[in-house]
Amino acid sequence: MGNNCCRPERCDQDNAPKCLTNGVLECSAPLSEAISKTTDAWIQLAGHAGNFIPAGPKTVWKKQPRDDRQEGQCLKELMRDKVKDVVPKFHREIECNDTIYLEMEDLLKHFRDPNVMDVKMGTRTFLESEVRNPELRHDLYEKMIHIDPLEPTEDERNQTSITKLRYMQFRERGSSSASLGFRIEATRRSGEPPNTDFKKVHTKDEVSSTILHFIGAEQSVCKQFLRRLQEIRKKFEASEYFKHHEIVGSSLLFIYDCDKRANIWMIDFAKTTYVPGRKITHLTPWMQGNHEDGYLTGLDGLIVIMTELSGRLEQSSNGEIINSS
Asked: Which tens digits make up the pLDDT trace of 266-310?
């Protein structure tokens, strides 16, 4: 039994999910055919396109790389942690058609015609292992000057090369990740296509305006989001798991619907990594080797913004005009 729980359950096309979000899959139907017929069942946001398959009325399958099972292991452990109520419920790993999937709670099942926002958390969105190589790279220099021709230093111009660390830090300074500890990756409002064009949203005022536009100036939605952020903060701080893991590339998924139901979950743990012999504060500024990620810096920043928006919307309900443009 101990060995079986470490291996994904196997299935084939004949045993693919029978009940999909938008209908019923016949046992004889190829899985790829079922996927093509249900592409609208899961909203695809930044970095998620093609990764999710509606698996049933209450679950989805998330595709995993064969050589990296970190996210599945993380979700298993989080199901026993203080934060289990603020992450998607994890069911099992499944192997189907030589592909590994994680079966987890479909967060959209709680909502009718949902609006969704993906917020990438942390002041650092790359693993330390990704930037240890001191090699100077011309391709990254070219990418940098394509974004901002004035960014390179005199030495970098002479070398026409930079390290990956230099490039990654440059990219994060261009968003709100470095300054606020989070950045808006994507939104999808009901009746509109997904929007991922937030590269120029990096000041606090710009972020506040973007969030206000997303929630449609709904005071009750804003208050629900604020309470949930405070709950996540409390559970995060009580988590034993996160005291010893760096959280890189993880997001908060904001969802609300036409009935003004709203909630937030922590998602995306593929780069959540155990750090031996060190306790992570998630607040201390990052220096190479300390593994700090700034997750709580971003969470605290979101709480401040949502608190301010809630106050503004309360004033609006008393007759004042709020600009969400």
From this structure: 999 999 999 999 999 999 998 888 999 999 999 999 999 999 999
Rounded Cα distance between 81 and 235, Å, is 9
Other beta carbons less than 10 A from residue 75's beta carbon: 22
Cα–Cα distance, 178 to 172 (Å, whole number): 6
Region of 104 on the Ramachandran plot (φ > 0 left; ψ -120 to 50 alpha; else beta): beta
CA 316 to chain centre: 31
Give whole-number Cα distances, 216 to 82, 147, 257, in Å.
32, 32, 11
pLDDT digits (tens, 9 = 90+) for 32-66: 444 433 444 345 554 555 677 777 778 888 888 87
What pTM value is reported for the model?
0.81
Strands 262-267 and 271-274: unpaired
Whether the Cβ atoms of residue 21 and residue 57 lie closer than 8 Å to each other: yes
